[in-house]
């Protein structure tokens, strides 16, 4: 048997073990002593260690350790620190720290927390008063329902004839001679819908301005077909639209069938990349240098200023080329509108001059006729 700490044994220790020079009595349990303080003192005496050594190990002042051994609770600091001292002292002596703390709490209860009576409702009280409570609730419900029924019944009145203070004489005498009787006749037909009146055209003025007889249907149709510009298909959104806003774009690419569309900037960055389904479109921003790369040029229609401009001509198309075409068409349309307005103004001026000349001829002819009539035979 070597030296060291002996295992605790709750039974009887043989005498041959006690006669060994290395034998040490096991530390008694803290529950065997009469009080916590006596148990701590006995354990310290058996350990053979001084109070100063234990104070250095536990970092607790000697007077507090001595107060614990003497069960002098009044000499200890607050309860929290006292419990910590008990735990440290028991651990240094090889005792069960938790048992020591529980015994300290049991022997010195906390006086700051007053004992409170159990909270709860006795089942007998509930059973005794439940019929009264249920009866009160039923009576209250019946009273509320009865009051509502009474209010509704009191508001319901049977229809009664109106009281006429004075009956007109014509009601009792019938028709009065010389007095017209108002009778309601059959309903009248609804008035016809309002329509916009036809535009009035001065006879001879249209032919004078345009050089076309308005009564000649074939000539009017031929002139309309000759002057009308070719009508292109307008852009019709049939799916999602990506890219720039409608006010900041003049070029739109719309997929007639599914196809890939990739737009790369001049520096290699990808501005737009997507697999467009049939009907989806992409609006190209203006004043941007980019290259349009498509999987199938025939799968994409190009719309310039909202009108069809044909399909893409190649797999790679500069975006600046499409923007230039759109701007040129816009300028051409504006010039055509300006030219039409100028021609209309010139025609109106010619018509005015012709009208004035006709009036002058008519006046001259009238004056000549008048002078001939007035002159002597």
Automatic annotation (TrEMBL):
<dbReference type="InterPro" id="IPR010982">
    <property type="entry name" value="Lambda_DNA-bd_dom_sf"/>
</dbReference>
<protein>
    <recommendedName>
        <fullName>Helix-turn-helix domain-containing protein</fullName>
    </recommendedName>
</protein>
<dbReference type="GO" id="GO:0003677">
    <property type="term" value="F:DNA binding"/>
</dbReference>
<dbReference type="InterPro" id="IPR050400">
    <property type="entry name" value="Bact_Cytoskel_RodZ"/>
</dbReference>
<dbReference type="InterPro" id="IPR001387">
    <property type="entry name" value="Cro/C1-type_HTH"/>
</dbReference>
<dbReference type="Pfam" id="PF13413">
    <property type="entry name" value="HTH_25"/>
</dbReference>
């Amino acid at each position: 048997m070597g030296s060291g700490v002996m295992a605790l044994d709750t039974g009887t220790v043989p005498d041959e073990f006690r006669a060994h020079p290395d034998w040490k009595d096991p530390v008694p349990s803290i529950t065997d002593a009469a009080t916590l303080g006596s148990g701590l003192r006995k354990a310290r005496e058996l350990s053979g260690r001084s109070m100063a050594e234990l104070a250095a190990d536990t970092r607790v002042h000697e007077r507090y350790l001595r107060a614990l051994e003497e069960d002098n609770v009044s000499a200890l600091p607050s309860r929290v620190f006292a419990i910590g001292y008990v735990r440290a002292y028991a651990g240094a002596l090889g005792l069960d720290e938790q048992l020591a703390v529980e015994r300290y709490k049991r022997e010195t209860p906390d006086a700051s927390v007053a004992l409170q009576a159990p909270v709860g409702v006795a089942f007998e009280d509930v059973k005794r008063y439940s019929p009264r409570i249920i009866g009160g609730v039923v009576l209250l419900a019946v009273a509320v329902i009865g009051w509502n029924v009474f209010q509704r019944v009191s508001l319901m009145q049977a229809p009664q004839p109106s009281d006429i203070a004075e009956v007109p004489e014509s009601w009792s005498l019938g028709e009065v001679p010389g007095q017209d009787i108002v009778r309601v006749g059959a309903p009248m037909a609804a008035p016809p819908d309002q329509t916009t009146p036809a535009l009035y055209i001065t006879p001879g003025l249209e032919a004078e301005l345009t050089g076309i007889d308005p009564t000649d249907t074939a000539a009017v149709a031929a002139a309309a077909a000759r002057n009308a510009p070719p009508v292109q298909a307008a852009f019709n959104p049939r799916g999602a639209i990506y890219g720039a806003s409608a006010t900041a774009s003049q070029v739109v690419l719309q997929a007639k069938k599914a196809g890939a569309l990739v737009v790369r900037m001049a520096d290699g960055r990808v501005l737009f990349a997507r697999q467009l389904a049939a009907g989806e479109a992409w609006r190209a921003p203006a004043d941007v240098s980019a290259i349009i790369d498509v999987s199938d040029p025939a799968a994409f229609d190009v719309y310039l200023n909202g009108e069809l401009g044909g399909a893409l001509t190649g797999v790679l198309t500069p975006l600046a080329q499409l923007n230039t075409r759109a701007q040129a068409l816009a300028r051409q349309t504006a010039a055509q509108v300006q030219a039409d307005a100028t021609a209309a103004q010139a025609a109106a001026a010619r018509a005015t001059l012709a009208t004035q000349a006709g009036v002058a001829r008519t006046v001259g002819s009238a004056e000549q006729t008048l002078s001939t009539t007035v002159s002597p035979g």
